[in-house]
Structures are given as C-alpha cells and as structure tokens.
Amino acid sequence: MKPVRFLEGKNIYLRPIEVSDANWYFTTLYHHETRKLTGTQKHYTQEQIARYIEGKAQDSSSVLLVIAAVSDDTPIGDIAIQDIDTINRNANIRIAIPDSSNQGKGYGTEAIRLMLDYGFGILNLHRIELNVFSYNERAMQVYEGIGFKKEGVQREALFYNHQYYDSILMSILEDEYRSLYCK
C-alpha cells in the first residue's frame, strides 16, 4: 500500500507518522549530530516512542509528519508544527533530517515551506516561530532564506556537552509569508 501524501512538494512529501514508524523514529533520535542540532538530552525507549506517536495522533495542538522522498517513499526526517495556540493564532515549528546524505539538497527548505503554507493557509495561523541553537549557523541561514526573522537571543539556554549555548528565536508572520510565496 502506497503511503498517504498529505502535503506534496517536488522532491519530498509530508505524511502522517504511524506507529509502524516507531523503530525508524527511535533510530533517528540516537543519531549523534541530530541530537546535538536539536538539543536532545533525554533518552527514550522504543515503547516510549510508540506511545508518543500514538499520543500525537490525538493531540490537536500539534501536527507531526514524516518527510519522505517522492522518488521512493523513504523517510528522511520529520517536521512538526506544535504548541498551536488557536486564540492568538501562533505556533512553533521544528524539523530534523538526521542523515547527512539528505542534507544540503533543499529537502528541509521544501518541507518547511510546505508546513508554513499549511500553517498559514489551512490552520489560519498568524505567526510561526522556531528556536535554533547558536552553533547551527547553517540552519539559521536556511531559515533566513525562507523568510524567518531573528527576534531575540535566549542567552545560554542550552547546556550540551559541558558547555552552554544561546538559543536564537526566529519567526515569520503570515503577511511576510504571503508576500514572499503567494503572488
């Protein structure tokens, strides 16, 4: 059975995460570089991951999707709009593409653009924010290229590998997104 293509781009598509993805998701959580880039500090069991995925299906405050290659349906990462606040119309976005062979190909940019379009065009959000750690300059450049603006710095917000790092807060507003992509 072919996977559902919830949001489709040119090279990737986004699909709902399934409990059957638990092993893949568990493995990605233990990729060394991904843990650093996302600031993941805790450890998880496969059972915890399976319960997390089941819970996300019932959680109306988030949308967790797998990023998959259009060419062969291979999962290459995950992306989420989370902490959806329907009163103030804002949310947070996060993304992870763990395998370096899938990085630098525009997949992350394409996935974020698909999620922003969904967030602003379907969920009727006004503001979408993200946090990126100060050592992840490549991601900051990608986010700025998409249209995110730096809003502030949370000084020494992350302790990782014996050192503190700043967390950079960035956001994009619906009118900024529409002026860039809805012409």
Automatic annotation (TrEMBL):
Residues 12-175 form the N-acetyltransferase domain. This is Aminoglycoside N(6')-acetyltransferase. It comes from Paenibacillus woosongensis.
